[in-house]
Every structure is written in structure tokens, then in C-alpha cells.
């Protein structure tokens, strides 16, 4: 047996309660392991009060598994009668049988040595307050990300000086187009008609830039976007349509004009806020060359974005008070933390505790682009932006040497990194204000819709970037932040595109595509560039997805209810085609 491929621990995504009664247990093995059994029971079912009776548990086979590139992920759900569980694994490899304990492996012969130490894995107690809980509404949400300056200008009376004429071509970061909160309010019915039930806004607080990630005043709505009353109206009007609102919190760094930073620059070490930032050498010069030398820390090496010291209790208290204001006064439903992996864990824990105390079902999302288990243990974020999933999907079209098995491996990796409850509310996306637009990543519109079809059928929560519904183009930042072409939309130029997105959103809302506990990849079509997978809900309802990414026609026969199709006719799925249908009714 390949002992080096076997791994389990009694924490994080390997062993955890998903609710008050169910304990999920996962184990990784190599492909040489043919079967896995778990022997489990109450730790005190034998040997109570000093007796010498040997402990033994109930044995059951672990059936569900996911294939990774070099390992297999086996998963099962137990229901410990007394909320505690002791267990070990039995691994079958051809003619071998090995037993896996916390302190190592034992052969069958070693298992029968009387008095032999066998340190079982133990989950001591399923304390209700330790369960990783996430807001259930997020799983059913289709988000729409808006970059306010470029979405819609609804109030020309607050346009910035030298505002540019609304246009549809490439843009620059230095250009202001006058998009505002009133413009979003005016388009709520449009978003409701699309099927959107969540809006994620990039920063709306006072800032000199178009992107607003260099905050000047965390307690003030930018005057070119509106005011507090406009923000409250946006939330009220959105809520009346069943649409939630999430704001962007920039707490890793501030802008050059933040009054507290100005005080530090002017007064130096004598400023009462000197320890609000990470300054290694005085005086502060605000020069790029000094940032590169490490004289003070910033976001990346942007000398105008000094890094806030979230190790400082006063800084944490201030930023948390800002977030509580957004919740209590604006009634927002979620907060996304920018550059979330650089703020202190202490801040993230305190933020969660305070926000959940005032709004228990608020959604706390972190912008982290890599493995984020350290933030997803139930005491910090509910979820992170699922950029690994975006990369896994897009890579399959960019690299035609990849096979359907490669796709399976990389998708399974994305959904074995975290606990199931986090998977259910991951923020799934294919592009954003920080990336090239999806339309610019693909060779044609068929590939564009194929990737979206996968996005909309993945476990988690789905987000599209404004303009995705019309296949808007845009290269890397800032070109991905183009103006929304409302004139063309109103004239019906994009009706066919919009209708397709509406179908995908409707499919997402009306079929069992959100949760992913039973999610597997059959292999019924020989073509290695045809993706196949099946989603199964808790009631045995199956949805099959088939995506033809090859250059050949393939045959797909079904007499079941077809939920979505593109380039499919008379049992033939064309190159670039999509077929989603019920597979068991």
C-alpha cells in the first residue's frame, strides 16, 4: 500500500459537524486502495470505570468518493448517538488489509496482539457553539457585481467635474463617467427581471479614484455616488424586490487622504495615530522608493495606499464600528473584505463576533485567491471568492491538452478544500473588476456560454460581473470596467444574449444545482474533451450536465426533461454544445 498517500486528521475539512447531529469524516488515500471501511462508536462504550473490556466499534463501508489528481477523497457522514465519536479506518489493497489509526498503521497480525496500543481518532464532543454555521440564504443567491461609476448614471446633478460622456469602448482609471447609486436604483427592475437576487457593490465610500479602493472617509458615501439617504433607499428598494446587498470593505489599507493618515504624515511619531499604520522608519515620505525599501508598508507597493495595522485594538474597534454602521443604518446583508488574507486573524474573529451579534445571517466574504482553510473554520469568514474554481474552469478551454479526467480532478480539488457548509456558500465567479472579462478569455460565444453553464451548475453561490449578460468585452484592469451600453440594451441589440443568461439563472433557481454533497463524474462518452457530471440532491433528484468541448459531434440520447440546451439537435451535441437534463425521472 502507498502509505504516503493516506491522510486524515480530526479537524478542519477532514472531520467536522455540519449540524447538531451529523459528523462528516473524510480521508485521502492513493488509487491503490480499493475499499475503505470506518469502525466507529462511542469512546466510552467499553472500559468505563476502569474495566478491561476491549473497545470495538460498528464497521461500515465508505462509499462516496471523489477522484483527485494523485489521490482519492473518501467521505461519509456519521450520526454519533451521544455527540462524541471514536474511530479508525480499515483499508483494503488487493490482498492486503491495513488499519489506520491516529498514531500510524497496523497490519492484521498486529491488530490481534493483546494489549497492543491502538490510538484511535477521536472527535470528543459536537458542541453546538463550535459548529461552523453559514447563512443559508447565500446558497440560493445569484449575485451581480457592480462597479458603480460605470454601471448607470441616474443623477447628473452630482456628476464629478470633467465627467466623461457615457460610451462603450475602452476606459482608463482616470476617467469618471458618473455612475451612481441612483443609477443602480433605476435598474433594479432590470436586475429583478434577469433573476438576480444579490448585488455586490465595489467600494462606495469617499475616495478620489474611480475604483474607490483608496478610502478617504469610511463613514461617508462618496458625494459623486450619492449620500446616506440614497444608500438607504437602494437597500430598501432592493429588499422590496427580494434582492440582497453586499458592500466592499477596504480594511487592509486606506487612501492617502484618509484624515488619520494625514495626521501621521504631518506629526510623525508624535501623532496619536502613529501606531495605526505599519511604519518602520520615520519620517514618512510617501515615496515609492521608500516603500520599496520597506520604510513603511502599503498595499503591494502603492505609496498612496498605506497599510492599516489591524494588530492594533483601536484600529480594529474603529473598522468594526464602520461595519456595524453599514449593517445597523443601511441594513446591508453582506460585507466583502478586500485583501482579506493580509488583515490580522484577530480582526477577522472580532469582526465576525460583532457583526453576527447584530445580524446573525449576515454574509462575511473574504477576497482570498488561494487555499483559505485558515479563514474558514467558523470563527472568521463564511466564504471566500472562489478564484481557484474560476481558474479550473477557464484553464480547460485555454489548454486543449486537458482531458475530462483533468477537469474532474481540479473541480474535486476545489470542493475538498473546505467544510461542506463553506462549499455551499462559496462565491463562485469567472471574472470581476480585478480580472480580464470572460468574453476576452474565450475564442467564441459558444465557449463563453459553456463556461457559464458550468458556473451555474456548481455548488455554492453564483456571481456574474455587470455586463456578462450581454457578453461584454474588456481586457485587464482597467479595461474590464467599461461602461454599460444601456442604449444598445434598450434598443434590443442584446436580447438574445440576455435571454440565454435568464435561462441559466432560472435553471439555477428552480433546479437542485446549489448544494454539492453528491456530485460525481460518470464516463459514458468516449471523447476525452466532453465533460460529464451529475448533481444529486438530498431526495435522489439527478441533473446531468454534458458539455462538448471537442471539435467533433457526439451522440447524447435522452428521453428525460431537458432543462437547457445549446447546439443540440436530434441526439447530436455539436462542438460548443451544452445539454442539461433530468437523468432519473
Describe the fold and architecture.
The protein is α/β, with parallel strands linked by helices and 585 residues long. It has 14 helices and 26 strands. The strands form five sheets. Strands 18-17-16-15-12-11-20-19 form an eight-stranded parallel β-sheet. Strands 3, 4, 7, 8, 9 and 10 form a six-stranded antiparallel β-sheet that branches. Strands 21, 22, 23, 24, 25 and 26 form a six-stranded antiparallel β-sheet that branches. A hairpin with a 4-residue loop joins strand 5 (64-67) and strand 6. The longest helix is centred in the middle third of the chain and has 18 residues, at 313-330. The radius of gyration is 26 Å and the shape is globular. The chain starts with 14 loop residues before the first strand and ends with a strand. The model has no long low-confidence stretch (mean pLDDT 95).
Question: Topology, please?
Answer:
Layout: E1 15-17, E2 23-29, E3 35-41, E4 58-61, E5 64-67, E6 72-78, E7 85-93, E8 96-101, E9 104-107, H1 108-111, E10 121-123, E11 142-146, H2 181-186, H3 188-194, E12 198-201, E13 205-206, E14 217-221, H4 228-240, E15 244-249, H5 259-267, H6 288-292, H7 313-330, E16 334-337, H8 345-358, E17 363-366, E18 383-384, H9 387-398, H10 404-414, H11 420-423, E19 427-428, H12 445-456, E20 461-465, H13 486-490, H14 495-510, E21 518-520, E22 530-536, E23 542-548, E24 554-555, E25 562-569, E26 572-582
Parallel strand pairs: 11-12, 11-20, 12-15, 15-16, 16-17, 17-18, 19-20
Antiparallel strand pairs: 1-2, 2-6, 3-4, 3-7, 5-6, 7-8, 7-10, 8-9, 13-14, 21-22, 22-23, 23-26, 24-26, 25-26
Helix pairs in contact: 7-8, 9-10, 9-12, 12-14
Amino acid at each position: 500500500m502507498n502509505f504516503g498517500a493516506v491522510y486524515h486528521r480530526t479537524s478542519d475539512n477532514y472531520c467536522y459537524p455540519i449540524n447538531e447531529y451529523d459528523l462528516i469524516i473524510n480521508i485521502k488515500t492513493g488509487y491503490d486502495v480499493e475499499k475503505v471501511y470506518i469502525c466507529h462508536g462511542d469512546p466510552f462504550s467499553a472500559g468505563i470505570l476502569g474495566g478491561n473490556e476491549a473497545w470495538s466499534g460498528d464497521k461500515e463501508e465508505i462509499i462516496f468518493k471523489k477522484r483527485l489528481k494523485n489521490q482519492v477523497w473518501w467521505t461519509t457522514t456519521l450520526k454519533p448517538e451521544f455527540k462524541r465519536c471514536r474511530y479508525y479506518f480499515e483499508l483494503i489493497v488487493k490482498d492486503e488489509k491495513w488499519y489506520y489509526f491516529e498514531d500510524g498503521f497496523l497490519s492484521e497480525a498486529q491488530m490481534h496482539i493483546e494489549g497492543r496500543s491502538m490510538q484511535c481518532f477521536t472527535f470528543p464532543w459536537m458542541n453546538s457553539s463550535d459548529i461552523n454555521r453559514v447563512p443559508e440564504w447565500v446558497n440560493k443567491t445569484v449575485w451581480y457585481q457592480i462597479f458603480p461609476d460605470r454601471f448607470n448614471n441616474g443623477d447628473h446633478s452630482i456628476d464629478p467635474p470633467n465627467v466623461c460622456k457615457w460610451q462603450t469602448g475602452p476606459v482608463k482609471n482616470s476617467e469618471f463617467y458618473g455612475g451612481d447609486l441612483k443609477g443602480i436604483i433605476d435598474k433594479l427592475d432590470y436586475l429583478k427581471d434577469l433573476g438576480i437576487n444579490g448585488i455586490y457593490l465595489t467600494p462606495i465610500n469617499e475616495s478620489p479614484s474611480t475604483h474607490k479602493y483608496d478610502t478617504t472617509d469610511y463613514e461617508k458615501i462618496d458625494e459623486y455616488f450619492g449620500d446616506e439617504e440614497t444608500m438607504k433607499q437602494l437597500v430598501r428598494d432592493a429588499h422590496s424586490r427580494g434582492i440582497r446587498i453586499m458592500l466592499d470593505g477596504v480594511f487592509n489599507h486606506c487612501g492617502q487622504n484618509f484624515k488619520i493618515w494625514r495626521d501621521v504624515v504631518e506629526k510623525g511619531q508624535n501623532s496619536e495615530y502613529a501606531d495605526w499604520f505599519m511604519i518602520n522608519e520615520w519620517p514618512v515620505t510617501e515615496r515609492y522608493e521608500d516603500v520599496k525599501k520597506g520604510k513603511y508598508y502599503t498595499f503591494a507597493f502603492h505609496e498612496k495606499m498605506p497599510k492599516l495595522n489591524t494588530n492594533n485594538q483601536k484600529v480594529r474597534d474603529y473598522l468594526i464600528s464602520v461595519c456595524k454602521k453599514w449593517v445597523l443604518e443601511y441594513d446591508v446583508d453582506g460585507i466583502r473584505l478586500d485583501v482579506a488574507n493580509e488583515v490580522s486573524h484577530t480582526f477577522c474573529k472580532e469582526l465576525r463576533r460583532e457583526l453576527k451579534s447584530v445580524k446573525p445571517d449576515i454574509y462575511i466574504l473574504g477576497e482570498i485567491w488561494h487555499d483559505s482553510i485558515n479563514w474558514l473554520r467558523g470563527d472568521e469568514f463564511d466564504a471566500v471568492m472562489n478564484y481557484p474554481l474560476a481558474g479550473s474552469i477557464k484553464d480547460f478551454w485555454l489548454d486543449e491538452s486537458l482531458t475530462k479526467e483533468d477537469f474532474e480532478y481540479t473541480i474535486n480539488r476545489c470542493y475538498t478544500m473546505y467544510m461542506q457548509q463553506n462549499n455551499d456558500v462559496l462565491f463562485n465567479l469567472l471574472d470581476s473588476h480585478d480580472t480580464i472579462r470572460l468574453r476576452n478569455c474565450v475564442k467564441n460565444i459558444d465557449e463563453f456560454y459553456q463556461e457559464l453553464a458550468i458556473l451555474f451548475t456548481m455548488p455554492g453561490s453564483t456571481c456574474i460581473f455587470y455586463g456578462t449578460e450581454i457578453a461584454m468585452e474588456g481586457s485587464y484592469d482597467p479595461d474590464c470596467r467599461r461602461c454599460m451600453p444601456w442604449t444598445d440594451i434598450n434598443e434590443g441589440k442584446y436580447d438574445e444574449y440576455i435571454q440565454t443568461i435568464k435561462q441559466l439563472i432560472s435553471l439555477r433557481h428552480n433546479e437542485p444545482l446549489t448544494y454539492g454533497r453528491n456530485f460525481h463524474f460518470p464516463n459514458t462518452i468516449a471523447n476525452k474533451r466532453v465533460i460529464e457530471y451529475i448533481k444529486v440532491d438530498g431526495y435522489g433528484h439527478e441533473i446531468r450536465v454534458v458539455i462538448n468541448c471537442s471539435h467533433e459531434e457526439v451522440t447524447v440520447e435522452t428521453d428525460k426533461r431537458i432543462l437547457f440546451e445549446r447546439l443540440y439537435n436530434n441526439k447530436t451535441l455539436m462542438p460548443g454544445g451544452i445539454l442539461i437534463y433530468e437523468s432519473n425521472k
